[in-house]
């Protein structure tokens, strides 16, 4: 047992001697200098839609308005847009201070005055609104001013209304695709 303890002590002395030699061989520091590193980031004004994490030139389908199925003759039928990803409106988050606008353009089946849903050559007019009471119609080409951006997203709800207005419509799946533009 004494032999083992002697070896551990000798090994400990050897390690301590080597460590002291390594530190002693390092050059002494005579002084120091301090400096800086420049770090920068340029942030451009931007807006993102429906919780996107980046800005894209084409933002794809922002949501959909799906009217409930109706018989061939029906009165006013209302629906609200459901945003892509959920939510009751289009979410627009912009750099603070910007004054974004949202323009609702024409649909694939529209004339210069009305939006139309179409199926196999048959059409039925529909209307878009900015309020749930459907008193503020959004006309083709209308610009919606969203206000001045803060760190909180704007919510842009869109509501729809369709009616056969007493006409008997052929059965079918009536659709339209409306173009929209977000500008800032």
What does this protein structure show overall?
- Keywords: Capsid protein, Signal, Virion.
- The protein is of the alpha+beta class.
- It has one domain (about 45-184): Immunoglobulin-like (Sandwich), CATH 2.60.40.1090.
- About 15% of the residues lie in helices and about 30% in strands.
- The chain has 1 helix and 13 strands, in the order αβββββββββββββ.
- It has one helix at about 1-25; strands at about 45-50, 65, 75-80, 80-85, 90-95, 100-105, 115-120, 120-130, 135-140, 140-145, 155, 160, 180-184.
- Strands 3, 7, 8, 9 and 12 form a 5-stranded antiparallel beta sheet that branches.
- The model has no long low-confidence stretch (mean pLDDT about 85).
Structure described in brief:
With about 180 residues, the protein is an alpha+beta fold. Helix content is about 15%, strand content about 30%. A hairpin with a 7-residue loop joins β8 and β9.
Oligomer: single chain
Based on the coordinates given, report the CATH architecture.
Sandwich
**Annotated CATH topology:** Immunoglobulin-like
Query: What is the element string, with H for helices and E for strands?
Result: HEEEEEEEEEEEEE
Mean pLDDT across all amino acids: 85
| Uncertain parts | none
Q: Spell out the CATH superfamily.
A: Fimbrial-type adhesion domain
| Cα separation of the termini | 84 Å
Beta strands, count: 13
Structural class: alpha+beta
